[in-house]
Specification:
single chain; 448 residues; Immunoglobulin-like; 3 domains; 6-stranded mixed β-sheet; 4 helices; 7% helix
Length: 448
């Protein structure tokens, strides 16, 4: 029977069994030849995923004490409302018993043989019924207690309150936001990439998810980040089963396979704006916070395909203008003990920048610079690079913050960077230690 009698003698039991409350068998005081307790006692939060199926939980009762070979028995029951009320009053809790139709459990008298140090009991929680419970100021629990044993029951570990929480399973992209994949000139022409979809629980089902293209995601990203990434051309990629991703039992993740045809691309930054649109499982939903991914593909040439630009003063513009220390010529003179310094005494705060006008149209570049030899307070800590065809309308190519040197005389060389076609490049320094200017001892540029 599930119901038990009034929860009597709790205070007396506390006085009799204050010691021996550690979970490790054999560490109880020798005063107790045998003592019993719940392995996971107290309040036990339990996540129930709404899958249309019940959730099983195993209750473990341990036998400990100075004589582990002793035989014993104990009853495990569900408290009735009056017993739970006594417990709430004693400990200041606000537990409310979950209705009996929300779970199945058979009250049991556990018989421990001399060779047994623990016993398992199963409680099956009916998720669909628990999900129907109305909100309450009290905490819904299934309240278990141990009682009726000739041996000792540990007072601090004699009760167990399962506190279930129903969660609707969500399927989502493992990686969201802008995720770049770099493609080089080396290797096979067909390049296989993957974007995992995830179900955050043990999967027992066959179901499909559908992924589609949403160009508006890229338009919004370009506008918000002042970039101009191109939509990946339809002839440059395929998605497995046209975006249908199959989950099978035992697999918590499944990959959306994306195959890139490199020969269909020019050097540059492309994006496949993906949206997770549907899931065939009737109780699963799409995680609205993780249902999109800007799957980036940057096709970058090898450095060997770039040529050094012979920079002249006439090719370089500066902001703010004029300079009040050093000159443009001293940043391209091949000498490490001379330098250009942006105007630090004027009214223009950072960012300060240099513009380079090129003699031909390009899509790829790398740049190098050296910090001045006698001071590093103008060392760049953040650089944004922009490209333009007309020298007026610029679009951001990238922002660099990592691995920028900080010491006097240190050098920096970027990786090969790509953008849409440009004939002008702007190198905008947005952050330095002094906060009002930057300095380059040397500056070099290579383009394709």
């Amino acid at each position: 029977m599930r119901k038990n009698k009034l929860f009597i003698g709790l205070a007396a039991m506390l006085l009799l069994t204050q010691s021996g409350c550690e979970d490790n068998k054999g560490e109880f005081l020798d005063d107790f030849s045998t003592i019993l307790y719940f392995k996971n006692s107290g309040e036990v939060p339990l996540t129930l995923y709404k899958t249309g199926e019940n959730t099983d939980y195993t209750i473990i009762v341990n036998k400990a004490g100075s004589d582990l070979t002793a035989t014993t028995d104990v009853s495990v029951t569900v408290m009735d409302q009056s017993s739970l009320a006594v417990y709430n009053a004693e400990y200041g809790t606000m537990y409310k018993e979950i209705p009996a139709n929300c779970y199945t459990f058979q009250d049991d008298k556990l018989q421990f043989a001399s060779t047994e140090t623990y016993k398992n009991l199963k409680v099956s929680l009916i998720t669909t019924e628990i999900d129907k419970l109305e909100a309450s100021e009290s905490t819904y629990v299934i309240p278990f207690e141990m009682r009726d044993s000739a041996d000792s029951i540990n007072a601090k570990k004699r009760v167990l309150f399962i506190k279930p929480k129903v969660v609707v399973p969500k399927v989502y992209f493992d990686k969201t936001g802008y995720q770049v994949n770099t493609v080089s000139d080396e290797g096979a022409t067909q390049i296989s990439l993957a974007l995992p979809l995830v179900l955050p629980l043990e999967n027992k089902w066959n179901f499909n998810c559908t992924v589609g293209i949403n160009a508006a995601l890229l338009e919004a990203y370009n506008q918000q980040n002042e970039v101009d990434y191109a939509l990946l051309p339809s002839n440059a990629y395929t998605m497995n089963q046209d975006g249908i991703v199959a989950f099978t039992p035992g697999n918590m993740a499944s990959n959306l396979a994306i195959n890139i045809t490199r020969s269909s691309l020019s050097y540059g930054n492309y994006v496949l704006p993906l949206q997770l649109n549907s899931c065939s499982h009737p109780t699963f939903v799409i995680d609205a916070a993780k249902n999109t991914c800007l799957f980036g593909v940057s096709y970058v040439p090898n450095e060997s395909k770039l040529s050094t630009v012979t920079l002249t003063e006439s090719m370089i513009g500066i902001f703010p203008n004029p300079t009040n220390e050093g000159s443009i010529a001293e940043m391209i003179d091949g000498k490490s003990d001379t330098y250009y310094h942006s105007n630090w005494s004027g009214t223009h705060p950072l960012p300060h920048y240099i513009d380079v006008k090129l003699s031909k149209e390009s899509t790829a570049f790398l740049f190098e610079y050296q910090i001045r030899h006698n001071n590093n307070n103008g060392a760049p800590q953040q650089i944004s690079i922009y490209g333009s065809m007309d020298g007026v309308n610029f679009k951001k190519i990238t922002t660099l913050t990592e691995n920028l040197p900080a010491g006097k005389g240190e050098k920096y060389k970027s990786s090969v960077l790509v953008g849409k076609s440009f004939k002008h490049l702007r190198f905008s320094v947005e952050k330095t230690p002094n906060g009002n200017s930057f300095a380059f001892a040397e500056f070099k540029l290579s383009i394709n």
